[in-house]
Each structure stands twice: as C-alpha cells, then as structure tokens.
Design brief:
mainly beta, Immunoglobulin-like, four-stranded antiparallel beta sheet, 3 helices, Xyloglucanase_GH74, repeat
C-alpha cells in the first residue's frame, strides 16, 4: 500500500555517496558538493592490485553454482526476508503498460525486476531465476503488453551496481513469468531498449559496452527477427557507447541515439570527449548522421547526453548535455525533428557537477511543452524549458527513471537512489513506496539482547534500524552512507554508528541523539570509505578502530590511542588511494590476540595486545583483505578472505592457518573465481562465506563448499552476522535488503543427510493447482508454502495419503517454495506459479 511521504536526502557518487539526512533537499551549493569526494569502494576491492575487473568471472561463478546445485543434496534452504522495505534503493527504470493502469515494472540497479498488478500494494520479483540482477533498461511492447524486453547492466557511470557489467538481453512473452536470453552477452551495460512501434520483431539496443576496458561491443544494435540475430548499426569507437535512444512514435524509420565517450580505471576517469554526440537515422537505423546545428561541438562540452521525443508532436525533441567534467552544459530543443536546436534556459537548473550519474529529460506524452529534468533533483518546465520549477519536492535525490501512466491522468512514477515514488498530480506532490526490498547494504548488526532490534548501513540511505523486527518500520538514525553499526551487549541503549571515511558516533540514549566518538584518532590518518570497527568480544568497553594504524579505546570510545604503527604499504597515490585497514578481529579466546587486514594485501597479528606486531601475509596472494576471523574454538586457527580474482592462480580467496598465520593453506580451491566478502562460523562449527553470487557453506574441516540456496537470489552479499542467542544467520545484500536463516535447519555434507521418501510435484509450473506425490503412503505430513521473500503464505496438513492437491488459483504468479515435513525429515521443493 502506498505510504505517507517518507523522504531522504543524499548525494550519490558511483557505488557510494555522501549524504546527510539533516540537510534540506534544496539546490545545494556547488562549493559544498565539491567537498564531498566520491569513492569506488566496491570497484577498488575487486580491481586491486591489477586495476581491472575480470570480465568472465561472474558468468563462470554462476555456472559453477548451477553445477554445484545439481550435484549436492536435494534440500533447499528457505531464507526469511528481514527487511527493510521502506528504505528503498537505486532504481534504474520504470515501465507501465499502455493498457493497464495498475501494473508497473521496476528495474533495480542490483536487485532485479519487480512487478505489481495492484498499483504498488504488493510486488513480486520476476527476474530472480536469471543470472544477473543488475538492470539497465526495460521496454514493453505497445502492441502486446505481455512482451517485455530487458537489457542487463546498469549504465550509470561508476562501477555499476554490481561492479560487473550485464550479461545481455532478455525477452518475456508472458508478462515476466518466464524469460529467454536473446544474446548480446558481451555488450556490458544497456542504456536503452526500444521496440519498433510498427513491428515487434524489430528491436534496438543502446549498448554502453564493458565499463572497465575499451571494447568494440558497444554502440547501437538492431535485430529484425525478434532477437535471434543482431547487427551493430552504429559504432563510433571502442570507448564510446550508446547511453540513450528515441524513436518516432509512428514513423519507425526515424531514430535518435546519444553516444557517450567514457572510460573507467582506478587511476583515471573520463566522462566525455570529442566522440560523444547525438545521431539520427532516417532509414530505420541502417545509416546515421551526427546532429550538430545548435548543439555543443567542442570536445570538453560533450559528456553524457539524454534524448527525448514528444509523443504528441514528434517534430519536437529535447536533449540534455552534460560536459566532460560533469556539469550541465545545457538543455536543447528542436522543433524540426533534429535539423536545428536552440538552447533553453538552463541556468535555472541545479548544477551539482556529476551529471553523468543522472537520467535527463522526459517529455509529457500529452504536452510537448511539459518536460521533466530527472537529475540531482526533479525540475519541471511547462513552457518548453524557458522556466523551471522543482517537482517531486522532498524526495530522495539522484534521479534515474520516470514513467507516465497512460491510463491514469496525472499519475507519474519516479525512481531514484531512494526507491520508488508516486505522484497523482504531475509531480506537485508524491508518496514513497514502502514495499520494494531493494536496499543496497554494506554492513549490519543485531542487538545481542533483542533480536527485534536490527541495524544496517546502507548505500546512500544512512544507518537504519527497526526496533520491532518489522519490514516496513525502519528509520534513519545516522546520516551519510551507512557502514558498521554496533550495539553494546550489556546495554541496549548504547549504539555506535559509522559513516564514510571513519566518521564514528555514539548514542547512549537508544539512538535519540549521537555525538562524535573519535577523540584521539588522528585526523591525518588514512581511513577507508568502509572503516572497520569492532568490539573486544570479551569486554564491550573495549573497541578497535582501523585507519592506517589500529586504534583502541578502553572506555567505550571516550578516547582512543594508536596501538600499532602504519600497517599498510602507505598511500597508493592516484585518484583512488589505498593504504587503510579494512578488517579487525579479536580472538574470543584471548583478548590480546588481534588480527588486522588491509586493502593493500597485508595481514598482521599481535599476541600481546598491540605491543608488538608481526606481518603474516606470506603465503596469501596480494589482494584486498575483506575479513580476518579468529576461530571461536581453536585459539591458533584463523581465517582470511580476499576480494579480487585469481588471474592464473589456483588457490582461491579463502585461507586458513592453524598456527596464527605462520603458515597458510587454501581452503577455497574448488570455489569459483569470485570475490569473497565475509566469513563467519557458527556454534556447531559450520563455516559460511558471503560472495558476489550468494552464500556458500561447509560443515566439516574438509571444506567441501555447498550453495546455501533456496530463495536467496544470486545477489552480492556484503556482510553476514550471527545472532548468537537465537543462532540465526543474517545476510546483508547489496540490492535485496536483508535475509535471515535458522542455522538449526542447515544441514551440510551429503553424508549427514538422510533424505525422506522421494517427492514429486506436478504440474510445475502450475496455474490452478499442483499435486504432491510421495513414493509411499504417508501417515502425517505438513506443508508450508513460502513466497520468494520467505513469507509464509499457505499451510497444509495431510494424513494417510500418497497424493495431495494444493489449490493455487488464488496465488500471484511467481516463485514459491514448499517445505514438506514427514516425521523428522524435511524436503523443500521449488514451485513456479504462472
């Protein structure tokens, strides 16, 4: 159900951004914005030390995961969704069918696609079965609104929401129930997908190409046979892609393409150049001509460009140019189909200096003079760009998508870094959606005394929490990009919160107010964007804080002192500086035994509380250290996980030492070549890994890794947390909020599994009913049915039967999980409802 207005504020740069929810959401002075520096945190992790992302790694990791699932036991885990729903996350596209006023599709930067058929009251994920959840653009046929095309890979400049590019184009002919890959797997990210209004078999794709390398797989691609084959019809160069397109609503021979020269490297960023430009085709995309009459032509004037065509008068077009430095160059209008252009009044627009991040111009389909600049904020003109006023007031900043409801006058939907907003008065006011589970999280924590109090640090959405364990009642408690929260195990009112670059604060009144908690930490020390902080597990008054030196407080952050020298290799230089501590762990068996890892490949140990330090990096590859974990059972055992890729090495990204780091053994050789973001160990000895494609687990010290699958999609998991009193494993994802799993239900190792009688489900997919058939008569069994978010939606008890019919005509289309218990044995089966 649509909520009352719930608003956020922020400035986004790439993966991460600088936000302050106490600031007014008004035109922010450029001088103030320029002080807030960007960070490519997730790119830096994965690119170190080679400066690049391995392009085939994600695809190969998904393939490994599928093979592993086919070989391991027939037991799925049902994760329970733990929220938040009302905080939101980055949206890249919104589409509304022309014939249905209450059906919307929302594409998320790193969370897949969600569909509603009741105007936003409820949502279902419809893309989770696919390998890539980073969405670039969607398009719905106007002739058959069950036909949907999707281009994967977020095109907004930066690392992209998953660091990885997309894996091509997909098509659905049944409203998103099923999908078929339509190729173009190597085109990186997708700026636009367009269907010929007169021929559904003709489709155009604006491809930005791979982000992290120059490559010819970019430009405009065309298919004239429904995606079976493609041809590249517009190519400028190996670093210039297509970011936007427009097509004449009745004469599909006329098309427009916005080309953008862009490069992304750890040491260099290019957001424009001479090859950026606006092009037109008048023969259905076969040949193209650059449009220059009245448009910027100098190289430094041409950065990201958006193009929009009026549906009510197709001779009228608008283009918004950013220059190569990211500032607004101008908004331009053509009244003759692009032959000539006139600059509109662009001086009234908010110019924040990183307009390569925002979408640009949309035209009201009923009025050629009403346009929206979907930018840092939303600005609207009703006179063709002569004058501008703020629209969608008080929404989260950083805008990426807008959609008009053709069936409902005045209804406009907006997507930004804070989620989805609805307006029923053409943007004069709006309400925020509180039902989409797409928050991008970095870190999380659960109050040891109260499992209902869950805390999380979110990209561009601050430090947030729920005090009820609810899904829709999360609130912001501290601004900025949110990172590691902590709660004193002895006093639930004592809360610590962290924002970018080590801004650490403390509350003693249950988050009613916070004060700085960095006294004694040198301002000149280097701090990571995601600065690590942790408790001494044996004394909550003692905490540790990692800059380039390790700091300790013994009075609950009243004051700090450095207890180490610089544990890094020094500043990395360039525009992306390495040289910071990234992970700290204190042995639960000995408080003087402390481990530290850094972003430049170092692992250190002190056995005397910081008096002396030993470098124990020998035997571990030179990669960004994501986690050091002192074993909870063996004082001499320690684990290390790494980001990055092998590049010919065979030992993987997780290591174990049995002698405090004097020697290391790889325990991840069989894992795919994928970054590992976290490692935890539960009370029973099971070890879990958080990776870029989900969570893996091992039940014995043989470390035979299994996929902890079920309804957790293949999403980046940045952080895990075990709530010890309840033995619940929490997973903080980058794009799908938080999931949790009862650890007592996790069985690892096929030798430990005693399967119940074989169970068959048919039909599957099903529409009105499905039948469960057992190989033998069962005297008593229970069936729990969960939706894709782990919410229980149906329960059945059956007795003395071999078959059970489950009616599903009342169920919404989507993926469900049937947890079937016969005696003490349980199996979980997946069911697709059409």
């Amino acid at each position: 159900m649509r909520s009352s207005l719930y608003f956020f504020f922020g400035i986004v740069f790439l993966f991460v951004s600088c936000t302050n929810p106490s600031e007014e959401n008004v035109k922010t002075p450029t001088s103030e914005i320029s002080e807030k520096l960007p960070s490519d945190l997730m790119f830096l992790q994965r690119a170190y030390p080679r400066g690049k992302i391995k392009p085939e790694a994600y695809r190969e990791a998904i393939a490994w995961k599928k093979r592993q699932l086919s070989q391991q036991r027939n037991q799925l885990n049902v994760w329970e969704f733990a929220g938040p729903l009302n905080i939101g996350g980055r949206i890249t596209d919104i589409e509304i069918p022309v014939d249905n006023a209450t059906t919307y599709y929302v594409g998320a930067a790193s969370g897949g696609i969600f569909k509603t058929t009741d105007g936003g009251t409820t949502w279902q994920p419809i893309f989770d079965e696919m390998d890539m959840l980073s969405i670039g653009d969607m398009e719905i046929s106007k002739n058959n609104t069950n036909t949907i095309w999707v281009g994967t890979g977020e095109p907004n400049s930066g690392g992209g929401s998953l660091v990885y590019d997309g894996d091509g184009i997909y098509k659905s002919e049944d409203g998103g129930s099923t999908w078929e890959s339509k190729g173009l797997a190597d085109i990186g990210s997708v700026g636009k997908v367009m269907i010929d209004p007169n021929d559904d078999e003709t489709v155009f794709v604006a491809a930005m190409g791979p982000l992290f390398r120059n490559d010819d797989n970019r430009g405009v691609f065309r298919s004239q046979d429904g995606g079976d084959t493609w041809e590249q019809v517009l190519f400028i160069g190996d670093k210039t892609g297509a970011i936007d397109m427009a097509i004449h609503p009745s004469n599909s021979e006329i098309l427009y393409a916005a080309m953008w020269e862009r490069e992304r490297r750890p040491e260099n960023t290019v957001f424009g150049g001479a090859t950026s430009g606006l092009y037109r085709s008048i023969d259905g995309g076969t040949t193209w001509t650059e449009l220059t009459n009245g448009l910027p032509t100098a190289a430094n004037d041409k950065g990201r460009i958006s193009i929009a065509i009026s549906q009510s008068n197709p001779d009228v077009l608008y283009a918004r140019y950013a220059n190569a430095s990211g500032s607004i160059e101008g908004v331009y209008r053509s009244q003759d189909g692009g032959d000539s252009w006139q600059e509109r009044n662009s001086n009234q627009l908010t110019n924040v200096g990183f307009h390569w991040w925002f979408r640009g111009i949309y035209v009201d389909p009923l009025d050629e003079n009403t346009i929206y600049n979907v930018d840092f904020i939303v600005e609207k003109s009703t006179d063709g760009g002569n004058t501008w006023n703020t629209a969608f007031p008080n929404v989260h900043v950083d805008q990426h998508a807008l959609a008009f409801n053709a069936q409902t006058g005045g209804e406009v939907l907006l997507g930004n870094d804070g989620g989805l907003y609805y307006s029923n008065d053409d943007g004069a006011s709006s309400t925020k959606d509180v039902s989409l589970p797409i928050t991008q999280l970095y870190r999380m924590y659960v109050d040891p005394q109260n499992e209902d109090k869950v805390y999380a640090g979110a990209q561009d959405n601050s430090t947030v929490r729920t005090i009820t364990g609810g899904l829709t009642d999360w609130s912001i408690i501290n601004g900025g990009d949110g990172f590691q929260p902590l709660v004193d195990e002895n006093d639930t009112n004592v809360i610590y919160a962290l924002s970018q670059r080590g801004n650490f604060v403390k509350s003693t009144n249950d988050a009613a107010s916070f004060s700085s908690a960095t006294s004694g930490i040198a301002g000149g020390d280097r701090k990571n964007w995601d600065t690590p902080v942790t408790f001494d597990p044996n004394n909550s008054q003692i905490l540790y804080y990692g800059a380039n030196r390790l700091y300790r407080t013994t009075n609950a952050a009243g004051s700090w002192e450095a207890i180490s020298p610089d544990l890094t290799n020094g500043s990395g230089g360039g525009n992306n500086v390495y040289g910071t501590i990234t992970t700290i762990d204190v042995s639960p068996l000995d408080s003087d035994l402390i481990y530290v890892g850094t972003d430049d490949g170092n692992v250190w140990v002190t056995e005397d509380g910081g008096a002396t330090w030993q470098d124990i990096s020998i035997g571990i590859p030179n990669r960004w250290v994501t986690k050091v974990l002192a074993d909870r059972d063996n004082i001499n055992r320690v684990f290390v996980t790494l980001s990055g890729y092998r590049y010919g090495e065979d030992n993987g990204n997780v290591y174990r030492s049995s002698n405090r780091g004097q020697a290391w053994s790889a325990i991840g050789e069989e894992l795919p070549d994928i970054p590992i973001n976290d490692i935890v160990k539960d009370a029973s000895g099971k070890v879990f890994l958080a990776t870029d494609v989900g969570i893996f687990g091992a039940g014995t010290q043989a470390y035979l890794w299994e996929v902890i699958d079920g309804n957790l999609p293949s999403v980046v998991v940045n952080d895990m947390h075990i709530h010890e009193p309840s033995q619940t494993l929490y997973a903080a994802t980058y794009g799908r909020s938080i999931y949790k799993l009862d650890l007592s239900t996790v069985v690892l190792g096929t030798s430990e599994v005693v399967e119940s009688a074989t169970i068959a489900i048919a039909p599957n997919p099903a529409e009105d009913f499905t039948e469960i058939t057992f190989t033998e008569n069962v005297t008593n069994a229970s069936i729990e049915m969960f939706d894709a978010l782990g919410r229980n939606v149906k329960n059945l008890n059956i007795t003395n039967t071999r078959t059970c019919t489950i009616p599903i005509a009342d169920m919404r289309a989507g993926t469900y999980f049937l947890k079937i218990q016969v005696g003490t044995q349980t199996q979980t089966k997946k069911l697709i409802v059409k």
